[in-house]
Structure formats: structure tokens, C-alpha cells
Amino acid sequence: MTAAYKFLPPELADRLRGLGVTVRRPVEGGLQGLHRSPHHGASVEFADYREYTRGDPPNRIDWAVYARTDRHVIRRYQEETNVRAYILVDTSESMAFRDAGKLSKMDYACHLAAGLMFVLVNQSDAAGLTLFNDAVQKQFPPASSLGSLRPMLLALEEIKPSGRSKIDKALHTLAEQIQRRSLVILISDLLQNPADTIRGIRHLQHNKHEVLVLHTLDAAEINLNFSGFTELRELETGARLPVHADEIRDAYAAEVQKFLDELRRGCLGSLADYQLIDTRTPVEEALHAKFGQP
Predict the structure, then answer these.
(1) 134 and 179 fall within a common domain
(2) Is residue 283 in a domain?
(3) What DSSP element (H or E) covers 210?
């Protein structure tokens, strides 16, 4: 890609070239690719090999080939296909927050989205983009070439965080729209009732889509980093609350932990993959930790 994009600079793209996004559940696509298809071939006889990718069952590695070549390869017995991924980015007002991290949650989320789109297309998959707050604001259908990512990358640069977030509404909308089994990646601070978010995730899972949740928070939201009296402002409503930080610190930490635990349990119970990401973590480091080779 010759153009320079704010959220996918050349140096970031170069550092992401070795990554691979895989899915655990069978998906449907139109091209031969890296992911299992729900449609089996005429038989389950051995077809050929491919390189081992993170997420593949270790018992599919051909250890005899490894002994001869020092390469981890997978025996293919069934048709494999490419994946269509839908990346949802929360653009609500709360995503504008920045305190401990070098980037606001919004800018960090845009870097994650741009990096994931690049990785997916670079491995011959297709990536689409949905921007939402209290409703879906913009949608781009999955694209499978680096050049076709341009409108999505430019759309990320135009985001101005605003409004309240209705994550469940966006998830329900997408669940009704997607026809084929796909990968859905949600990037958000998830600052709403966890039960509502989980209901949206379950709708996608019920339709046999695979869901990955990248929960993006500033460290100052997890642990209060100030003392004494101050006034807090809720970004999405403007409501203000005077507090004494030292008096509420322990109660605040307990509520945050309860919030995170409910999200983790809900995602686990819905067979969704959940990852909490601190915006102080370099973007490429966060993506390598999640999608790098073991």
C-alpha cells in the first residue's frame, strides 16, 4: 500500500505482516483459504498439506513431516475456505477519553481496526467495517484487496466521537444482516449494561457467527489515579458528580472488577473470545499477543 494512512502507517503494516487471524468455528466463503468450511468434500481422505496457523488443533500436525523438514504442517481432510470478517468500532463520546494512555480510546480502536483489516486482507480473507454509537452510522461491505480498504481507512480518519453507545443494537442489526457464517470483531469500551452487550453477542452466536471482543480501556478507568476532591463528568450524558477519590477508591475498584468479570463470564458462556486491552499497550504488541504465532 503506497498511500499513508493515519491509522495504518507503513511501519505498522510492516510489523503486522507475520500475523494470522483464524476462526474456531466453520465459516462460509467463496475462495480457498485458511479456515474450515462447514461443507465437507466428497470424502475425508487426505488431500494435501498447509502451514500450521495459530488456532489449529495440534493433533492435526503431521509430526512425520516435521521430523523430516522441521516444519509444522497440517493435513487437510476437508474443504477449507476464506473468511468474511465484520469489524465493528464504537464511536460514542466515551471513546474520546484519554488519561493514562498516549492515545484516546477512539484512536487506539481505529489503529486496532486498521491493523486487523490489513492482516485479514493480507491473508486472502475479506474485511468489512461498521461504525456505530446509538445506531449504525456507516457500513462498508467486506473487501478482499489492499486497495479496496482505502474507503474504510479514510472513514476511520473522519470519526468524531459523539452520542451514547448502544452496542447491543448494533450487534442485533448486524446479526440480521449477515447471511453467511462469518467472523465478527467488536472493538469498544463496552460502557453499558453487560447483560445487554451479551444478548447482542448471543444473537450472533445463535446465527453461528464467531465473535471476538476487543475490550479497549484506558488504565485510568480501571484504577483511579488521582486523590482528593474532584468532579467527574460522564462523557456521554454530561452528568457531573463531585467525589473524594480516596473515599471511593476501593468501592470503585470492586465495581470495575465486577463489571469485567460479568463481561468475561458472559462472553465465555456465549462462546465468544474476549480480550481486555489497556491503551498503554502498543497496538502492534496487543495484536501480536492475540494473533502472533505461539
Answers:
(1) yes
(2) yes
(3) strand 210-217
Q: What is the pLDDT of residues 87-121, one digit of tens each?
A: 999 999 999 999 988 999 999 999 999 999 999 99
Dist. CA 232–CA 216, nearest whole Å: 20
Beta bridge partners of 87: 129, 185
> Could you tell me if 231 and 274 lie in one domain?
yes
Task: Please tell me the pTM assigned to this model.
Answer: 0.80
Coil, helix or strand at residue 17? coil
CA-CA distance, 125 to 148, in Å (whole number)? 12
Grid cell of 121 as nine digits = 486482507
To which residue does cell 491503551 refer?
279
Q: What is the pLDDT of residues 238-273, one digit of tens each?
A: 788 888 878 888 898 999 999 999 999 999 999 999
CA dihedral 11, 13, 18, 22 (to 10 degrees): 150
Q: Do residues 127 and 63 share a domain?
A: no
Q: What is the pLDDT of residue 240?
A: 86
In a domain, 30, yes or no: no
